[in-house]
Structures are given as C-alpha cells and as structure tokens.
UniProtKB/TrEMBL annotation:
GO terms for cellular component: membrane. It is a single-pass membrane protein. It is found in: Membrane. This is Uncharacterized protein. The chain crosses the membrane at residues 491-511. It comes from Nymphaea colorata. Coiled coil: none annotated. Keywords: ATP-binding, Disulfide bond, Glycoprotein, Kinase, Membrane, Nucleotide-binding, Serine/threonine-protein kinase, Signal, Transferase, Transmembrane, Transmembrane helix. The keyword Transmembrane helix applies.
Amino acid sequence: ELFAATIRMSGTTTATTISLLSLLLLLFYVVDCASGELFVLPTNWTTSPGSAGNLTINTDRGTFFPATNSTGSPIASNGSAFILGFLKPNNSNFILSIVINPSSARATTVWSLNPSRPIPGNCSLSLFGNRTIVLKDANGSVVGTLGGSGAKMLGMLENGNLQVYNTSTRLLAVARRVIWQSWDYPSDVLLPEQALRQGAALSDSTSGLYNLTMHAGGAVLYYSGQPYKTLPMTSNFSVAGAVQPCFSPSNLSAAGQSFAEYTGFSLELYYSGRASNSSASCSFLNSSTYLDSGDRNDSTTGILRLDADGNLRTYALMPPQPWNSNFSLDWRPERELVSPQQSCDLPSFCGSYGLCRSQQCSCPGVDSADHFDQISPSDVTAGCKPRNAINCTSGSQTAIHFIRIPAYDYFLNDLKPPENYTSNVTACESLCSASCACRAYFYRNFSGECFLVSGNIYTLKYAANDSYHAGIKVQNATTLVATQARSRSHLSVFSIIGITIGCLALVFAVFRCVWRPRAASSIADIKDEEDSEEDKDELEEEEFLKTLPGLPPRFTFAALRDATNGFSQKLGTGGFGTVFRGTLPDGTRVAVKKLETLRQGSRQFRAEVATIGSISHVNLVRLRGFCADSRHRLLVYELLPNGSLDRWLFEPRPSTSATKAQDQPSTGLLNWRQRHFVAVGTARGLAYLHEGCREPIMHLDIKPQNILLDDRFVAKLSDFGMSRLLGEGETTQVVTAVRGTPGYLAPEWIRYSVATKKCDVYSYGMVLLELVSGRRNFVPEAEDPRHCYFPAWAMLKAMEGQFNEVVDARLKLTETEMEEAERMTKVAFWCIQEQPNRRPCMVTVVKMLEGEAEVEAPPLWLVESERAPRFLEAYGYDQVACSVEDGSEPVSFCTRCGSEVSGPR
C-alpha cells in the first residue's frame, strides 16, 4: 500500500519518486534482514509450559518447554536457531530462558530471566493490564518483567536478541521502537556482537557467586564479591585501576563510555571517550583483546560463557553429526582465561580452606590434632571445614593458634592493597590474632606486605616460594574440652563402679586369650605364618594410605557389595581383577574394580590410589573411592557411558536389541572431528600427568582400552595399575615387571627394563596412528603381512607421499581434514621414534596437534633400515630377508606373522 501511495503522489518529479521508491525498498530490506521473527501481542496473550503441546527440548541444563505466540507457534527466530521458553532444570522449578541450537541432541541455554528465582510448580508469561509482559508463578505473583508498559510486539532476532516493541507495525519496529531487549540484561553468555555495557555483569548459572562486571577501565571477575582476575585496558591490573582508571575524568563512571563486545572470535574491550590524563605513567589503549580465537572458520558459531568454575571460556559449535542422531559434541572449548595449569587461581577450585598445589587439593593441618576435615567425603574439591569453630567469646588470644603454611598465597592479594606493612611474619600474625574477625593472614617477606582475610576463606594457592607465608586461625581443642568439661556434671559413683568392673572384665578376657594353650598342626602353623604376612601387608598399607593427602572416600566391602548387587553385573576382566557395574546410595553410577587377592593386587591398588586419589583433570578418569577392608581391595571409578576407545575405533558394529548389553553404548564409526578431539584430549591428560602434577606420573599402559569416553566423547585416561610416581629430580625408573600390552611397549622398556615418560609418548604415538588409520598397530594373525605391524607399512606410505593411504578408508575427509590427518600421522611417527630422546614431550605433542607448533618431517626409521628392528623379536616376529610387492616399489622389510608367509596376498 505504501508502494502504491508513493506512485500516486502528485506534484513530485520523477527523480523524487525514484528516490522515495529506493528508500522504501531499502527499509523493507532492513526489516527482512535485521528484525527476525516479530509477533504481535493481543491483549489476552499468555503462554506457559505445555502451551506447545508435547513439544519439549533437551538442553544442557534440563528440559525446555517452548513459549508460544497467539497462534500457538513457538517464539523463535527465523530458521529457529534461537527459541524462547521455560527451562526446567529439576523436577519442580522453571526459568524463563532462550536456547540456541534447539534441533540438536542437546540445546544450549544462552539467556535466563530469573536464574536466582526459579519458579516452583507452574508459571506463565503474559501481557498485563498496562501492556507489560510479566512472568508469574502459580499464585499469580510477579517474578520478573520484560520491560515496562506499552508492549505491543515481541521479536526474536536471528542473533538471539529478544526485543519488546511499543508498536505493532513491523516497519516502525526497526525504527528504534524497542523498549526492552535481552542483550541489555545478559546472564552467563555473550553471543556474537553482543556487548557488555559499563555497569552490566555476567553471572554463572550454577551458584551465581561468580560474575564478570564491566567497569570504566576494564572488566573484573568476582567471586562472592571478591575480585580474582582483571581484564584491564591499562597497565594497572588492580581493581581500583579498572573501576576508576587513571586516564579518565572523575565522572567517567557515570558516562558509560566503556564496554566489552564478544565479536564471535574474541572479547574486545573498548573505551570510546576522551583520555584526559593519559601519560607515560598512565598507559592507555582504546581497546584490548582477550580470548582470541581468530583462526576459527568464519561459518562456525561461537559463544563466550562464564562457567560454573569461574573461568571465562569461548566455545565453538561443532558441525552436525549425521552418522549418529544420538550424539552431539555440543560446544568445543576454544580459549579460556585461566589455563588448566593455573586452575589454583580460581577461588573455588579446592573449595573453602582448600590447599591447591599443581591442581591437587588437600586440607590444612593433616598432621595435627586440629586438622581440617573434608566437607564432602567423596569430593576433596568441595572444600574443608575446621574441627573446632572459632569462638570469639573465649576471652583471650590463648584460646586460638595458627596453622602455619609456608609458600602459600591467596587470590585477593595481587588485586588489593595490604592491611599493613610489618617487619616480619610474627608481627603480621599478631595483627590477625588481635582481630576476632580475622580468619587468616598472608605475609610476603620480600615486600613486608601483611594481608588479613575476614569472613569466608576460599582456595589457597601454592606460590612455590618460601618468601610467602600463610596462617589459618583455629580454635584450641583443649580450650573447648575444658569448657565442655566445666559445663558437665561429675560422674556418679555408680558410673565409676560400672566402668571399673567393665575394665576388669576386659583385662581378664585379654589374659585368657593371651595365655590360652594352642594345639595347632604344622599345616595350621604355616597358615598362621601366611596370615601373619598378610596382616603385615595390611598394616603397611594402612600406614601408606595415611601418608596420602586428599583421598576420596573409603567404602566398606559390604557397602560395595550392596552397590553392585552382589557383584552381579560384570563389565570386564583385566590382568589384575574384574570390573562390575554399581550404583551408590546417592544414585551415582560407578564402575567397581575388584582386585583378586591382597598379595596379588596390593601393588596395583597402591599405584592407583597414590596416582589418581587426589588429582583432578578433565581428561583423567575420576576415582570416586576405594575399599581396603580386611583382605578386600576394591577401586571405585566414575562410570563413563561410551566405554573405551577401541569399541568405537576398530571395526565398530551397531548393537542390536537382542545382543546389546544393559547400558552399553551403540557404537558407530568415529568421524574425523571426534578422532581429533579424542587425540587432543588424551594428549592433554598425559601432559598433565607428566608436567602438571606435584610429582610427575608415568602411566605405562596407554592403549585404546584404557582411554574411556564420556557422554560427550571427552577422552579420559584410566587404569593406573602400572603407573609410577617420579620423585624430585628423578627421570627414570627400573621397572622389571614389563606387563604392558604388545604393540604399545617402548623398545627401551623391553630391552633394558628402564621406564621414562618417553615410554608413554611412544604408546601414545601408537594410539594416535590407530586413530588416524582405524587399524590396530599389531595384528599377528593378519592375512596381509603388511598389516602385521602396521606402523612399518604406514611409514612406507609416508615415504611415498601417500598419507591418504594411511587414513581410515571409511572416512570421507575434506581437504582441510586431510591436512590435519597428515599432521597427526607425522606427530605419531615422531612419538614412536626408536630413540627416546628423539620423541617430543607431551606438552609439545599437544601444541603440534593444535597447530601451535611446527611439525617437521619425521625420520621413517622402520623402513629406512635394511632389516627389521630387533625389538620386534619380543613380539614374536621372525625376521626374514624378503620383499613385499605393493604394486609399486618393493619393501626391504617384512615379517612372518602367525604363520609363514609365501608372498603378497
């Protein structure tokens, strides 16, 4: 109609008409491209969970019920990439939210209106009398609103921004008639091109204790109101420098000229105002960049999220997986503000009073009578609690003392000024002792700074420097005992008599047991001697367990027998014992490894408890507990639903309903993205064991069967029965019991019984080659002699420049993926070099796989030598001088595998 009216306009020239027509066409174009889906709101409009019928969506945080417009259609963007609705994170509470990627196996929440006030029971979103969109609970009480009065239309834009307009005309909506938009009130996510304005904040979706606040001079991360990280636009990294930067006028905080924008590839901080005080002593940048992911494909969707652990991360959405409709990798982490090696910088990483060293958590004062206990027996990262609460009314400083912890610091101390400067640590301790509110002090020898912390104490981080001192205030146990003693009445005479009689009876019973004659045969004597040896082993093991900090909970044998239904559901059997499926009383599904006998399984039991009992990493399987009950030794692990890597790599076959075991995954072929994801995750787990732990750990049994996959196909190393701890300065160990798996054992371990971290690198290289090829590295019964020892044939193909022949023929790779496959193959060849000093360390392997380090052409030593390497004899190979024709050049190396080979097949 507007178009026709323009043509009928009188008194206008042709040029004017053409200009107006062009303007109108441009306006219509802007509406179609920018507005997304707009929905007019009738007076009686309302929507609630269930308005979309049976339509529900599984999300990363629970079940999602789409909200609907007046016609009953979901309120979604064009193409339905974003959708508005009601999130139900548990069985009773609702949160108004927006999700992205609703058609995937697991959609992701990107915005919430009421995360801190979830609504129990039913709820509704409706248009109130003054045309205000309100969220109400079942009683009609208002929980939240979408802007003020005058709402006439709702719009879900293609960028995920939900807007409310005070007009019902679509054309005018684009003309800035927006009265409210979700992007002005972010929750825990920033979408591409979304800005965090000065004064606004992101909050984590779990506890709400973490938030990222944008200030005039940069952004600051807070935990429970206390800062722990800054993202500044100046050289001043303090909180004061971010809140009131040196380059700004005094009234800048009211001007709102600073903001942070997530571009889809990085977080950019901008200051659009005038720098009034910029000088050499006050460096200033108009913009600062953080979390840069600029090497990602432009077509990949990205988000920035403040996660529940307080880390700020960017994620990229993985492409769809058409081969398996039940699987989605969701969002792949790209960049994170706090690296895994710096996890101790996060305030809640080890919980209240937790001591964090090399990403391992423990509680203070483990060797003293007043030590701290774990808050959760099953999770050392949940924090610690003092055995005796501080009692400020006890009257004097003698009622308390300090647990002194050398070389530890606190996250607050780099971001705020000290309370005082003292000449020594004793003076600093006295300041804390004199203040009832003070719970801990931190002192720095090199600067004299004395920091006092009141209120809650969070994670203490290891500073690796004796110039740092920490002291935690604790209540004297004797004071409490004396106080309690004075409050009790004295024991009655009858109680004393009863106790005395009981003691005499006990002494008499012990006397009879000690002096009772024994009439045992020689067989019984031998048995007693064996029992004595086992008792000695048990005592040694008990002493050993006492030396380990931060252990998971200890179960009784009866509890684990009940959890596994009498050990009735077997998952598998290994060299040291059998694994059973179980369920703990809290509903957690676990895998319980039952070691055979005390003498046989004791070494493996100690190795696994000592290795992973107190460490935590996303790529290591989690030890949930253990049992050392009489002669029973059991280990309790988290149960990973997708099983081990070999199930998904070597000739996978879809399970049928008739043959599929309970809770066993239906395996399919891993595509290239998944294989690369598993390869990098496994490498990170090994790099953490080698370089990230307080004491380096050698796994010594890396193979696909020991790489488990969770529901998102995150790789987790398992089975630490062969692992060894390396002491300070130790790089090698003599391990005479070579009990690894043929095909994955490093040559030097077989030859000389010498194990180093490079043994793990060798085993990982074999796994990496299997990920690329989909073939086992060692198949004695293979009909084709080239595949008996696959690495040799793979190196031959590499020598001929035919890397595509090495790649799993079942995969259809793009050009970019083929380049990644060639890179991975070269990395694998470097890892399986015969000489250990030629193999890279695992940290370098991670960098090579992620493209952050160059990968040079590796020596192809298996095919460059005239004869097979001698170490293959240990695998049962029979060296012969022959050649195998492969349609091109002859191979100067072959073996007899299983039976004698007469020629090519």
